[in-house]
């Protein structure tokens, strides 16, 4: 390892970090990293330059890339039925949480489809587009925000919600989902009923609801799927499938040229997706909690079979970091490989080749992590060399 | 010199004015506040951004949301505390009283189990220097649960506990006064006959009532014995206020009627209002609108309730709506110095030499306040 090149001149945007345990793409070194113009300039042995930020042996990781979170929706609707009056305030609160978890690039999921009119999803979509798309506002956001349209193919309203937003320049990922009970995530009807136990359906209501949902699925899912795939192609947007359960689901995806399988629900589907060259992404809470909250396949089992490529925090932002260190500690996965699951792998899946790895020339999106009693804690976050946390 | 920080070019929000100037921080305290600039090398230029005292939040139940990120999914406590803390500091709050439920309501039986682990995690994370804001605990004691006295006794001695409040969730009273709604909902949920539900409801009310008086007296005595600030919750009637005042309560949280708020003022009690209520233009449960309380100048303290950054948004919204009669210093007082005093903290809450350097830098972007950075005890934490 070479000595860190001393910068020619110290400019205002120069950042030097030293005494860090730097997690590179395939190894770890103890040393220093310098930043110039928002990009990583050099990585080398520790420096004694007085202006350097001393990491005191803490980890230096690439900023995380999160492809799928409905966290913003939670801030737009902080309590059921309560639509927050300022979408800007909601996005700021969400952004703080994201950056605080070490995430420097986030794809905010927008649910396209509503199932019931009472869900206020349309208002949520409008608010999301307004807040994330406002250029003046993007300047003060700590993380880099993109949008991920989650298209509910078995919902009649999906299409009219999708059309006006499909060409938004911040939409960089579209996933195809079908939450009709009795298949995919909700293969087991009793689990679905259990998950929705607060709704206290009678047996008859439950039957009727399922029949209605199946009818809608039969009527719309196939044609909507074709429509969305064509639109994604037209706009050059990356596609993902969701909750693949069978080999057939995977084959359908491959046939459509889809290379990302989000949250496959069985080992068979994950194995097959991997065999067919798809990348598999699972929820980090699944890793941290040691299983799926809807009773499906455990992400740790997929990691053990080496068919887990990337993690998404799904519903707990800090779970990404927790899952990385848990996979490393408990499953013996080398730290660079575990870190790749939350940085370079998801970045590559959506074609963001300028970030996700600590390497000269890449964006200086950086996270400082300290282990406190085995719990990884975010101590600082830099986006393009600027400290944001 | 090394631990001296100079903030300049700031619009400094004092308790009664906004001045353009410079603040010096030394040894974690505010050393000086002056109008005009500075030549000090290394001074941080605010470029006209606002400098406010760090906000003080006496009531948020937001931690629970991170403990249960999804219904019935319980997260590890330390992780939950850290996520919660990030939201708090992002909302400009440097001192927070996490209001944790002591005792269960019918709807949330799990609240009994999570109390001690939540406090453990807050203490541990604070001791390890993992938290950005300073966290204290506000014990919200549910007087209808007979387990409340034991739970209170088990936790009230802890150093981190600084506020105690009494709350009473009984169908048909205070926050939820419409008993018919309750009965209708129970019928729909349980599928039982109306007579059965009505009888069960009567039995429930009798039981809750008989618990409530005894439990309330117990909690009040415990708080007074330890000289902890005692708050009451959801007062509705003049009698509710009189009872609370007689018990030694000096702060009424979220009064649900104008009458109660007026009586609290008459008794020189302070009133806490939920910032979300004002921002949303009314109460979620159909009670008095905070805007109406503000119009009569009956609000002393703003609390974030369930949305951490709502205090900050509320402060700026108030200062913009001139007809309500609050300028920025007046609005900030309700979010910093008054809640600090009401909760027994006299070392913070204002930008004044000698007080703790708990400060936030706020930039307005399209009228929305954005917290750029925060210092707690002179140390940059955000």
How would you briefly describe this protein structure?
The complex is a heterodimer of chains A (389) and B (382). Chain A is an alpha/beta fold.
Keywords:
heterodimer; A: 389 residues; alpha/beta; TIM Barrel; eight-stranded parallel sheet; 16 strands; globular; B: 382 residues; Urease, subunit C, domain 1; eight-stranded mixed sheet; 13 helices
Q: Which parts of chain B are unreliable, with pLDDT below 50 for 5 consecutive residues or more?
A: none
Q: What is the name of the CATH architecture of chain A?
A: Alpha-Beta Barrel
Mean pLDDT of chain B: 92
Please state the structural category of chain B: alpha/beta
Protein structure class of chain A: alpha/beta
Determine and state the CATH class of chain A: Alpha Beta
Put simply, the count of helices of chain B is 13
Biggest interface and residues each? A-B, 37 and 39 residues
Q: What overall form of chain A do the CA principal axes indicate?
A: globular
Count of structural domains of chain B: 2
Strand content of chain B: 25-35%
The tally of strands of chain B reads 16
The fourth-level CATH homologous superfamily of chain A is Metal-dependent hydrolases
Total individual domains of chain A: 1
The biggest sheet of chain B, with number of strands, parallel, antiparallel or mixed sense and barrel status, is:
8 strands, mixed
Strand % of chain A is 15-25%
Shape of chain B: globular
Radius of gyration of chain B: 22 Å
Mean pLDDT metric of chain A: 90
Percent of residues in helices of chain B: 25-40%
Which topology of chain A does CATH recognise?
TIM Barrel
What does this structure look like?
- The complex is a heterodimer of chains A (389) and B (382).
- Chain A is of the alpha/beta class.
- Chain A has helices spanning 71-76, 87-100, 121-133, 135-138, 158-162, 189-195, 203-235, 247-255, 267-275, 284-289, 299-304, 319-331, 335-340, 344-349; strands spanning 15-23, 28-36, 39-44, 53-54, 59-62, 64-69, 103-112, 144-152, 171-177, 238-242, 260-262, 279-283, 310-312, 366-372, 375-383, 386-387.
- In chain A, the strands form 2 sheets. In chain A, strands 1, 2, 3, 4, 5, 14, 15 and 16 form an 8-stranded mixed sheet that branches. In chain A, strands 6-7-8-9-10-11-12-13 form an 8-stranded parallel sheet.
- In chain A, α2 (87-100) crosses α3 and α8 runs parallel beside α9.
- The longest helix of chain A has 33 residues, at 203-235.
- Chain A starts with 14 loop residues before the first strand and ends with a strand.
- The model of chain A has no long low-confidence stretch (mean pLDDT 90).
- Chain B is α/β, with parallel strands linked by helices.
- In chain B, a hairpin with a 2-residue loop joins β15 and β16.
- In chain B, α2 crosses α3.
- Classes of the chains: A alpha/beta (389), B alpha/beta (382).
- The interface between A and B is large, with 37 and 39 residues.
């Amino acid at each position: 390892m070479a000595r860190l090149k001393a910068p020619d001149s110290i400019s205002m945007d120069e950042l030097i970090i030293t005494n860090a345990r730097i997690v590179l793409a395939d190894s770890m070194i103890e040393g220093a990293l310098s930043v110039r113009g928002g990009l990583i300039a050099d990585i080398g042995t520790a420096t004694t330059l007085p202006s350097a930020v001393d990491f005191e042996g803490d980890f230096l990781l690439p900023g995380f890339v999160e492809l799928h979170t409905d966290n913003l929706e939670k801030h737009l609707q902080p309590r059921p039925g309560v639509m927050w009056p300022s979408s800007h305030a909601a996005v700021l609160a969400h952004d703080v949480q994201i950056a605080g978890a070490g995430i420097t690039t986030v794809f905010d999921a927008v649910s396209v489809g509503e199932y019931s009119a009472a869900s206020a999803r349309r208002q949520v979509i409008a608010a999301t587009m307004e807040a994330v798309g406002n250029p003046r506002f993007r300047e003060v956001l700590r993380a880099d925000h993109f949008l991920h349209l989650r298209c509910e193919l078995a919902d009649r309203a999906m299409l009219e919600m999708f059309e006006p937003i499909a060409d938004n320049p911040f939409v960089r990922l579209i996933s195809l989902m079908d939450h009709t009970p009795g298949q995919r995530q909700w293969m087991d009807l009793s689990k679905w009923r259990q998950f929705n136990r607060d709704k206290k359906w009678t047996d008859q209501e439950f039957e009727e609801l399922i029949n209605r949902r199946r009818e809608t699925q039969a009527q719309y899912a196939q044609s909507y799927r074709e429509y969305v795939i064509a639109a994604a192609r037209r706009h050059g947007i990356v596609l993902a499938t969701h909750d693949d359960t069978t080999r057939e689901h995977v084959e359908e995806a491959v046939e459509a040229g889809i290379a990302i399988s989000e949250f496959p629900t069985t080992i068979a589907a994950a194995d097959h997706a991997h065999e067919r060259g798809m990348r598999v992404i699972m929820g980090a809470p699944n890793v941290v909690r040691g299983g799926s909250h809807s009773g499906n396949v455990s992400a740790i089992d997929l990691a053990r079979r080496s068919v887990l490529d990337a993690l998404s925090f799904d519903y707990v932002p800090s779970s990404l970091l927790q899952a990385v260190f848990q996979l490393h500690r408990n499953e013996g996965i080398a730290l660079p490989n575990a870190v790749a699951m939350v940085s370079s792998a998801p970045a590559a899946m959506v074609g963001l080749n300028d970030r996700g790895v600590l390497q000269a020339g890449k964006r200086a999106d950086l996270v400082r992590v300290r282990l406190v009693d085995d719990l990884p804690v975010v101590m600082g976050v830099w986006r393009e060399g600027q400290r944001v946390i | 010199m090394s631990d001296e920080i100079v903030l300049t070019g700031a619009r400094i929000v004092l308790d009664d004015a906004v001045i353009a100037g410079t603040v010096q921080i030394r040894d974690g305290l505010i050393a000086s506040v002056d109008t005009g600039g500075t030549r000090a090398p290394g001074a941080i230029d605010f470029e006209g951004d606002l400098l406010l005292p760090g906000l003080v939040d006496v009531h948020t139940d937001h931690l629970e949301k991170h403990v249960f990120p999804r219904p019935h999914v319980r997260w590890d406590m330390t992780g939950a505390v850290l996520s919660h803390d990030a939201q708090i500091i992002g909302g400009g709050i440097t001192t927070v009283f996490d209001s944790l439920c002591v005792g269960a309501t019918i709807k949330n039986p799990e609240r009994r189990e999570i109390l001690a682990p939540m406090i453990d995690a807050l203490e541990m994370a604070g001791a390890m220097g993992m938290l950005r804001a300073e966290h204290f605990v506000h014990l919200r004691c549910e007087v209808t649960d007979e387990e409340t006295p034991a739970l209170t006794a088990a936790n009230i001695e802890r150093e981190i506990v600084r506020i105690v409040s009494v709350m009473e969730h009984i169908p048909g009273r205070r926050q939820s006064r419409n008993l018919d709604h309750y009965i209708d909902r129970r019928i729909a949920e349980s599928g039982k006959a109306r007579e059965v539900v009505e009888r069960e409801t009567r039995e429930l009310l009798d039981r809750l009532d008989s618990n409530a008086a005894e439990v309330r007296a117990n909690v009040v005595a415990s708080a007074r014995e330890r000289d902890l600030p005692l708050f009451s919750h959801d007062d509705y009637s003049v009698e509710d206020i009189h009872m609370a005042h007689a018990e030694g309560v000096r702060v009424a949280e979220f009064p649900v009627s104008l009458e109660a708020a007026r009586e609290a003022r008459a008794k020189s009690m302070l009133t806490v209002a939920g910032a979300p209520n004002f921002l949303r233009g009314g109460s979620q449960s159909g009670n008095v609108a905070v805007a109406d309380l503000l119009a009569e100048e009956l609000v002393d303290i703003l609390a974030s309730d369930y949305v951490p950054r709502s205090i900050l948004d509320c402060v700026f919204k108030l200062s913009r709506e001139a007809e309500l009669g609050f300028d920025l210093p007046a609005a900030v007082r309700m979010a910093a110095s008054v809640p600090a005093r009401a909760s027994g903290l006299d070392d913070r809450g204002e930008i004044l030499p000698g007080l703790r350097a708990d400060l936030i830098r706020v930039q307005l972007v399209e009228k929305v306040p954005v917290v750029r950075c925060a210092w707690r005890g002179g140390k940059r934490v955000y």
